[in-house]
Amino acid sequence: MGMNVHKGLRKAESGMSLIETLLAMVILAVGISAMIGLFTVSSTYNHEQGNVGSRASGFAEAKMEELLSLAFADSATNTAVWPPAGAGGTGLCGALGANGSCGGVDPATPLTNYVDYLDFQGARVSATAVDANGQLRQFYVRQWMIQADATGNLKTITVRTTARRSLGARTAPFSVLISQKYNG
């Protein structure tokens, strides 16, 4: 008889009640809803820094290659247009004096002949080009600067590509590349 009492107690305690199951489901739902918010935020940041930032780096690299392909003393090639024109530009600023420089990479003040504008796909557009909705087509701004060293035989080329738009109040993604060209 003593054994039957213990079996009855075990049966009464086995399994979960409906209230316990519902409580567990509520806790799980709250946890999942918090994770959905994190997923949304991480997707946004991934788009900004992953996609837009990678494109900015690629476009900066393309401009750097374009500038490095010019002759050291080039003072006429217009690299603000595609394909680069043989005249009407500044090239690599010609024969810069010792410690001389030209161009600039301050995003607040783009300098004529040292800036070009790209749409989201990387096609060059004018500074004022708009789409069918009246929005500026420029998505990226590429700026460059050339600086000579004290001997005048080494030029440092700096290219900055900045995305014009960002999601939220964050700083727009940008990329800066620096390379050198030797006269020799």
Question: What's the gist of this structure?
Answer:
The chain is an alpha+beta fold and 184 residues long. It is built from two helices and six strands. The protein has one domain (11-182).
How many angstroms does the end-to-end distance come to?
Answer: 106 Å
User: Which class of secondary structure composition applies to the elements?
Assistant: alpha+beta
Cα-based radius of gyration, to the nearest Å: 30 Å
Average pLDDT, rounded to a whole number, is 87
User: What is the domain total for the residues?
Assistant: 1
**Sequence stretches where pLDDT stays below 50 over 5 or more residues:** none
Query: In percent, how helical is the residue content?
Result: 25-40%
Please, how many helices? 2
Counted beta strands:
6
The proportion of residues in beta strands is 15-25%
The major beta sheet can be summarized as:
6 strands, antiparallel
| Shape field | elongated
Order of helices and strands: HHEEEEEE
- This entry's quaternary arrangement is single chain
